Amino acid sequence: MSLNPEEVRRIVRLARLELSPEEAGRTRDQLNDILSFIEQLQAVDTTGVAPMAHAMDVVQRLRADAVTEPDRRDVFQAIAPETEAGLYLVPKVIE
Amino acid sequence: MNWEVVIGLETHAQLQTKSKIFSGAATAFGAEPNRQACAVDIALPGVLPVLNREAVVCAIKLGLAVGADIAPRSFFARKNYFYPDLPKGYQISQFEIPVVLGGTVPIRVSHGGTPIEKAVRLTRAHLEEDAGKSLHEDFHGKTGIDLNRAGTPLLEIVTEPDMCSSAEAVAYAKALHSLVTWIGICDGNMQEGSFRCDANVSVRRPGAPLGTRREIKNLNSFRFLQQAIDYEIGWQINEIEEGRKIGQATVLFDPDTGETRAMRSKEDAHDYRYFPDPDLLPLEITPVWIDEVKRGMPELPTAMQARFEAEFGLSAYDAAALTATRDTATYFEDCVTTAGKDNAKTCANWVMGELAARLNRDEMDTSASPVSAGQLAGMVRRIADGTLSSKLAKEVFEALWSGEAADADAIIESRGLKQMSDASAIEPIIDEVLAANPKSVEEFRAGKEKAFNALVGQIMKATKGKANPQQVNDLLRRKLTGA
After folding, report:
1. How far is CA A46 from the centre of its chain?
2. Helix axis angle, B449-462 relative to B423-436, nearest 10°?
3. Which of B120, B195, B179 shows the shortest CA–CA distance to B303?
């Protein structure tokens, strides 16, 4: 399996990246290398092997339900580009 | 021509935890913007999510309540999309293996006057985090972002396309709402967005394959759910009948116009590129843990309904009405415990009748009732022993409601409401009434039963409603017929 230029453009758009045609070509080559590596892996017979969702064979540790985080809005907003009335301001988004 | 409607619902229930699903920030509603948004919630670099145990307990409770499978191992995944109120660029959700699989929610609907029962099948329920809020009011041409809600735990409960009318969809949403509040995992506050529904709606000819569906987003009241689905069904049928095709779309309901309209969407808006979240390990739920949760759960509405029928001899209708909410069921049961099982039906009638009507009029929950279950039980006992007629009982109920006295007996005493059941006290009054109404007596003797009722009315009036109507009937008939 290999990606065509249109598929690469779609992935780039979904990732909100802006690539020059040259970069897009290089990215396509790299992605195709990764895909061919995965093809090699897929050749292994995995019958009877349970699918793995995580590389480590441990389970999730859980926290007790307690409020442990104080309000640090002023500290966080000191490094935000723009705030008003406690809100973070971003370029207008209209659905 | 006939059309068949197919509806599936996705409900987001906000879980009642103190802290967020992956951080220790508070979840309380109504805080000032961004006062409850910590470094994890605003996605500062280097932070890691840690799962809240209580959120998982809530999911297990729902699974047990709907008879679902609870996955011994489930996984968290990243759902990728860009929006400013989702600062990470992805929502942590569950994809391939959710925590709850299957299950059913029983509903009761009326089809052409006949009540039918139906079990709506659940596909799954999964844990996920909520996003923040975008405020589009004008901040000098910018959008304001409040991330207090970001990271609030949600359980998304997804049905199979099992409903075939807006009435069924509403019945399901109400049953699920009652269930999640009953087991205490969600406060059910729809205005605050704690319980919101998305409806997938399609239409088809009977027997034809499923039609293309459109998804109505974010319905936060049962009325909007009904209106939006009804409008959408009409719109889809009209489109097809006029020769147009339905395109898959996400639509919004506008309560002001009562219409649904498609959101402007890009072709790849739904390409979420899910993948397992490397920051979170598999969630393991052991049978021991499930048992522990089960032991802490209240009796479920369906079980309680069956018990009310068996133990108190109530009809299925009464038992269902009394178990519509946990508050009502608890109130009723407390009432019966004090009034005695023999008076269960009378308790049921008062809880579903006068009490429900008064609560409804004053827009109150059962738990806020000014008349306690114990007070109502005390009154029911005075009905049972003949002290109160139902008319006098209404007066006592009103007095209890307004807080006139602590119990029914005190009101009966102070207002002199005791029902007259002493024949020797009633008979002279009957004689007086007969003497004052010779015309009615004449008419009754001529065969007019109406005249009899008029006389009973006069006697009840003369006793200020305190006489036992049945006893008055008997005594009067005996006097008039000489029997």
Report:
1. 27
2. 120
3. B179
Residues B202 and B246: beta-carbon distance below 8 Å: yes
CB atoms closer than 10 angstroms to residue A84: 13
pLDDT value, residue B420: 72
* Domain made up of A5-42: CATH architecture: Orthogonal Bundle (1.10)
Residue B105 CA neighbour count, 13 Å, CB half: 30
B167-214 pLDDT, tens digit each:
999 999 999 999 999 999 999 999 999 999 999 999 999 989 999 999
In whole angstroms, how far apart are CA B409 and each of B119, B243, B309, B354, B400?
A: 46, 72, 30, 19, 10
ipTM of the complex: 0.89
Confidence (pTM)? 0.83
- For residue B269, what pLDDT is reported? 58
A26 touches chain B (CB under 8 A): no
Instruction: Tell whether A78 lies on the interface with B, counting CB pairs under 8 A.
Output: no
Domain positions in chain A: 5-42
Residues of B in contact with A94 (CB under 8 A): 136
Residue of B nearest to A86 (CA): B33
Using one digit for the tens of pLDDT, what is the confidence trace for B378-408? 999 988 887 888 888 898 899 999 988 888 8
Q: Do A68 and B18 touch (CB under 8 A)?
A: no
- Rg of chain B taking only CA atoms, in angstroms: 30
Nearest CA in chain A to B250: A95
| Residue range B38-64: mean pLDDT, rounded | 97
Nearest by CB: B38 against A72, A82, A92: A72
Among the partner-chain residues B18, B144, B271, the one whose CB lies closest to the CB of A87 is B144
Kind and range of the H or E run holding B6: strand B4-14
